[in-house]
Amino acid sequence: MADLLVADALEKVYGEGDAATRALKGVSFTVAEGEFASIVGQSGSGKSTLLNLIGLLDTPTSGQVLFGGENTTALGRKGRSRVRNEGLGFVFQFHYLLPEFSVWENLTMPAQIAGRTLSAKERDRALETLALLGLEGLEKKNANQLSGGQKQRVAIGRALMNRPRLILADEPTGNLDTANTATVYELFRRINAEVGTTFLIVTHDRAVAQQTDRILEVRDGELVQDVRNDYV
Ligand SMILES: Nc1ncnc2c1ncn2[C@@H]1O[C@H](COP(=O)(O)OP(=O)(O)O)[C@@H](O)[C@H]1O
Ligand SMILES: [Mg+2]
After folding, report:
1. Cβ(21) to ligand 1 under 6 A?
2. Nearest residue by C-alpha to atom 18 in ligand 1
């Protein structure tokens, strides 16, 4: 089977001249469909930069990103956003839900923004997503009435709505307590097993990384370790 993701010699330089920062110095790896992997490294090592390049939120200074066999680096802005919308889901440390909107509205935001009624397929998707995340009964609540853990679950649901092949999570539990952190990882695992979604999770928490199947370590802009984790 072809690799879902290929990161090929990714370099990223921010700024110019004396102020230039070489955030990534040639990072290469591949991810197969269905993997459950983490990216670890100290603060400032380049983890978010790497995730932003893979997520097509930013473009590399050199190197390329292939997604589903397609070379995204050759695409223009429009092509990249097509790949992003169809194939990728994002979960961040902060949930970025719209506080004055209900759980249901947050999940179905594209239709809300477009001011159109939901298609039957979108409705089913949203209901299925609520069930998958254990959020049934909360659909009418406003996001600002939810606990921190519930908010992050809705944010995960939103990332899952288009059933992306790959979910990229950047410190998704950085703002949560131990119990909610465990819940989020159980959910990621369940989605990985039941839906087949591939996960790439950035964390600086070793204990969290130990629960994934593969650990990639970034240090000072370089990939210094890539190990299968047998201790799950
Ligand atoms: N937009 C930016 N402009 C300039 N420098 C940046 C920018 N984003 C990140 N950096 C720098 O790049 C390096 C890697 O940052 P980052 O990828 O955010 O690391 P991490 O997520 O591992 O903490 C750091 O030195 C950081 O200061
Ligand atoms: Mg970061």
Report:
1. yes
2. 48
Whole-number pLDDT of residue 1: 56
How far is it, in rounded angstroms, from Cα 191 to Cα 223? Answer: 27
Task: Name the percent of the chain in helix, strand, coil, to the closest 5.
Answer: 35, 25, 35
| DSSP three-state, residue 78 | helix
Antiparallel, parallel or unpaired: β 36-40 and 5-14: unpaired
Q: In whole angstroms, give the CA distance from residue 150 to residue 143.
A: 9
| Superfamily (CATH H level) for 35-60+78-228 | P-loop containing nucleotide triphosphate hydrolases (3.40.50.300)
Return the ligand number nearest the Cα of 47.
1
Question: Is the distance from the beta carbon of residue 43 to the nearest atom of ligand 1 less than 6 Å?
Answer: yes
Nearest Cα to Cα of residue 187 among 172, 174, 202: 172
15 within ligand 1 shell (Cβ under 6 A): yes
Amino acid type, 52: N
**pLDDT, tens digit, 9 for 90 and up, residues 54-109:** 999 999 999 999 999 999 999 999 999 999 999 999 999 888 899 999 999 999 98
Reference 163, options 77, 79, 222, 88; nearest CA is 88
Residue listed under structure tokens 């839906």: 195
Structure tokens at 75: 């695409």
Instruction: Please write the tens of the pLDDT for every residue from 28-53.
Output: 999 999 999 999 999 999 999 999 99
The two tokens of residue 27 are 């990072």
pLDDT of residue 113: 84
Q: Kindly report, residue by residue over 134-170, the tens digit of the pLDDT.
A: 999 999 999 999 999 999 999 999 999 999 999 999 9
